[in-house]
Amino acid sequence: FFQACIFDLDGVLVNTAHYHFLSWKQITNRWKVTFTEQDNESLKGLSREDSLSRLLHITGKQLTPAEREQALIEKNELFRQYLTQMTPDDVLPGVTACLRFLKENHIRLAVASSSKNARMVLQKTELTPWFDVIVDGTEIEKAKPDPEVFLKAAARLNIQPHQAIVFEDAKAGVEAALAGGFCCVGVGQADILQQAHLIIPDFASISPSDLWISLSGLSA
Ligand code: G16
Ligand code: MG
């Protein structure tokens, strides 16, 4: 049976995926190019640098290395402005009930995020105390879809990948989890997350005990 759950942060536990989009959107507006929330799906879970590369590819925009640096700084400043306003209300519906249920059932909990701002997000939303282990973007060399962040979380939990379940909202994150040998639950749109072992729309659509039953089936 599985012993731990490893959660992606942005888009799974908290609603920051939308703030990442709004931050990039301000930059693409200035470039006068089209960038939609659907385009943003392929940026999810990628590091800041990889997100910018993907954004340039999608929009056809070209930047000099100096302009690139500037765009990365600006994106982070815009994003951190959104973060200052974050509160526990930004925790996605059903998440706290799920964490409580897992904890009561002696499942260890970890966060594995590509974000260099993850600790601040956890602090602002008051989620930090739930987690035994936190691995963020400042501690990894290879971003998702590389499994490094999840493998590091498993190592710190002192477990093997097959003993943990990863929750992910991004295609790159699902790929990372599978590459690492984890069981993966996709949280969000089925067409994007089809490679996951199980897909739920969000934590409000399933009761913790029904989720528990589905998870038990996965690790059997
Ligand atoms: C998150 C987001 C990504 C974002 C990345 C880097 O990863 O999903 O969209 O680009 O962090 O964030 P930052 O610019 O704050 O370092 P995750 O793994 O928590 O979904
Ligand atoms: Mg995510």
What would you note in describing this structure?
Keywords: Carbohydrate metabolism, Isomerase, Magnesium, Metal-binding, Phosphoprotein. Mg(2+) binds at residues 8, 10, 168-169. The chain is α/β, with parallel strands linked by helices and 220 residues long. The chain contains 9 helices and 6 strands; from the N terminus they run βαααααβαβαβαββα. The protein has a 6-stranded parallel sheet with strand order 3-2-1-4-5-6, with helices on both faces. Helix 1 packs across helix 4. The longest helix has 20 residues, at 65-84. The protein is globular. The protein starts with a strand and ends with a helix. The mean pLDDT is 95. Magnesium ion binds at residues 8, 10-12, 44-45, 169-170, 173.
Shape assignment: globular
Helix/sheet category: alpha/beta
The N- and C-terminal alpha carbons lie at a distance of 7 Å
Mind telling me the C-alpha Rg? 17 Å
Biggest sheet character: 6 strands, parallel
Which residues sit in consecutive blocks of at least 5 with pLDDT less than 50?
A: none
- So how many helices? 9
Average pLDDT, rounded to a whole number, is 95
- Percent of residues in helices: 40-55%
Strand content: 5-15%
How many distinct beta strands?
A: 6
Query: What's the SSE pattern?
Result: EHHHHHEHEHEHEEH
Binding site for substrate: 8-10, 24, 43-48, 51, 75, 113-117, 144
Catalytic activity: beta-D-glucose 1-phosphate = beta-D-glucose 6-phosphate
Cofactor: Mg(2+)
Organism: Thermoflavifilum aggregans
